[in-house]
Amino acid sequence: MLKFILRRLGAALVILFGASVLLYVLVINSGDPLSDLRESNADNREYLMQQRIDNMNLDLPWYQRYWSWLTGVGKCFALQCDLGTNRSGVSINSLLELAASSTLRLVLLATLLALVFGISIGILTAVRQYSGLDYGVTFATFLFFSLPVFWAAVLLKEYMAIGYNDWVREPDFGPVQIIVIAVIAGFLMQVFLAGSMRRRIITFAVTAGFFAAALPSLTALEYFRNPQLGYIGVAVLTFAVALSATAMAVGVKNRKVLYPALITAALVSVVQVALYNVFVYYMNWFIMIGGLALAAAIPWFIGRSMGGRYKGIAAGVSVATGVIGAGLTVVDHVFRAWPGFLGMKPRPIATIGSQTPNFGGDFWQTMLDQGTQLLLPTILLTIISLASYSRYTRASMLEVSSQDYIRTARSKGLPERTVIFRHAFRNALIPIATIAAFDFAALIGGAVITEQVFGWKGMGELFQTGLREVDPNPVMAFFLITGTAAILFNLLADIFYAIIDPRIRV
Amino acid sequence: MSTMNDQKTPSSGDVYSLAEAEDARLIKEDAESLSQGQLIRRRFLHHKAAMVSVGVLVFITVMAFSSIGFAGLPGWWGKTYLDAGTVIDGGRPTLSLIPTWLGGDGIRWGEYPFGQENTGKDYFALVMRGTQKSILIAVIVGAVATCIGAIIGAVAGYFRGWVDSILMRVTDLFIVIPLLVLAAVLGQIAGNLGSSIVYLALVLGLVTWTGLARLVRGEILSLREREFVSAAQSMGSSSGRIIFKHLLPNTIGVIVVNATFAIAGAILLETSLSYLGFGVVAPESSLGLLISEYQNSFTNRPWLFWWPGVIIVAIALSVNFIGDGLRDAFDPRQTQKRSKKRKAKANA
User: Fold this and answer.
1) Which residues pair with A85 in a beta bridge?
2) Is the pLDDT at B104 greater than 80, yes or no?
3) By CA distance, what is A466's nearest residue in B?
4) Contact residues on chain B for A444, CB-CB shorter than 8 A
């Protein structure tokens, strides 16, 4: 395995090297780096030109300039990266540090969300092939494929952000709005849950009735300005997660799996009350990540030790319950911080920038600030990459579903749930891993447009300015990040293959 | 299959043996046998989404090229995209599709169907000009990318060995640079060559061939082991003849389907680049350029933003659906389940 990985890594580095030469040559030949100074009327024109020539080493031939860039990058292996300077002599390292964090946050979040939703939608449409849901989703994915990012972004800004911000000042629903929302929600719910006509009608009536009753009462309670989940809400939802995760994995009759999940849920319910003060007063990212790790590790042990014959599944279900429970606790605290946040930032959903300038709040308020700034670009990137994931998952699931071993699994009487999730889905994941690996790097490239529309000072900005000024170093820094990401994720995909498919043991 | 037998057997009541019945059935089926091309055409014509898309695409293309004229030929639309004029009614579009009995203004075309922009230029003419250019770029990109991809893939797959290694490493090289980045750099270079859209289109074609090259190579790798290739080789055909006369025609399905998807991708790529300022530059025009010029007028004159966007979506969506229809037509394996289900429904 190690030899295989090393060989792949070596080949990838060679390709990366070749691509960097190609890009470097193309960028420095894409225009005249001095054009703006040539046209300027400044008195010290000659001096400015000479300064830029010195900064960019324009008096050297291209291979010497490339070589000095390459040796700077080579120092990365000694953890002393030197990515050169831009044309005015500012070090790229510091520029990239600022830019990369906001861009990677955006792209990682979007990829994660797109993978989760895309794969779920793909499975659902494959299981219900040629249903109304399938046709509807197929049309929607084709539409998303065909959407120009910059155009959709302006629409999102206009209708979602500005519309919501206006609305949240005085949240209110008119009777017509309530009826329309209730009918749409009921319709969508019956499409998703499907079943016989009778069942569909019942689903529709229950959902529509729920929304028709909930919207006015929530408005009356000022829920939209002052949302609450509370201890009880978190506890109830966590137990619901435990039950549904068990039901999805093996069914609630399996006590070996059900009990660890329920114990985890109980533990989450107790801990969220016990740690209330920590959450409110002493929260930081370190505690957050550590807490999430514990919320995964402890349930894992519970599941392993109590699961018996089903210890793998029990551990998985418990971990899911623990992590989602912890997530719900976080959501609860975000809700608690929301009224104060609205006071600081009356128009919450931002259309410009990656954070509000001069925003001084506590941990939760800062998180909400960054979250609301991140919301629109994330939705946009998620929608666009979701389309391809769901199509690939669907195709791959359909391909797998026609295999003999699926028929065998069905004919030996396994429940449909087991057939789909344990036999079909695992095998369908293999091609998706490859696509996701390539997609991540492409998405950083695609984020250039998103950042431009939303006015982020991210890597897209770095790249665009660099290219416009015919300044190779910023462009190469951008390429270095995407290229490394491409290699890294391809390696991860290779390792992932070996885990999910025992036949691939190189 | 069983239903078919049920229908046929009564007609062959006077035959003596099972074999003769079978022969009679085969002869009868032969009467309606179809060639491969006919089968594909028939499957494609039955794909509803694809047929609707063909209609939409033809409509948009004919509108774009006939209305304001193309390459010196005059069009039927009286106004040009150059003439500024007085802004009438805030430049609001006069196109109306809601009939009077529904409370609208009646179905009419009006003086300025798509409205006017800030200086009073007719926006319909501007949008049609942008559409023309965008379609032209997409078609050229699709053609160039398809040719390069098919040839590189076929040569790599046919010769294998070191030729294959080198060509595929070159392909990887192009893949590892994000498409938008490479396209933007080359777009800027093309902009320096001249403002003609042809340069941009050719350059974009140079970077979008990689996916097709990989697919064609895969197909050729399995095709080259077939008997007809050995036969051609033993008759002394040159490599070029084998590749172009024997191998590539057999991969036409993959090529055609991917060419359509390449066109849809090219439309979006070109509009994105023009939006960023690395693609089509004034005085040329394209749909992406129109959006980036008028995006700030969204609150005052939203139609300046809506029309080009809607047309981009319409073109990309219909080309994607046509591609989907072609894929189903060339490779019906994925759709077999549907036809079975339909037959079962029809029988029940």
Assistant:
1) A91
2) no
3) B185
4) 178
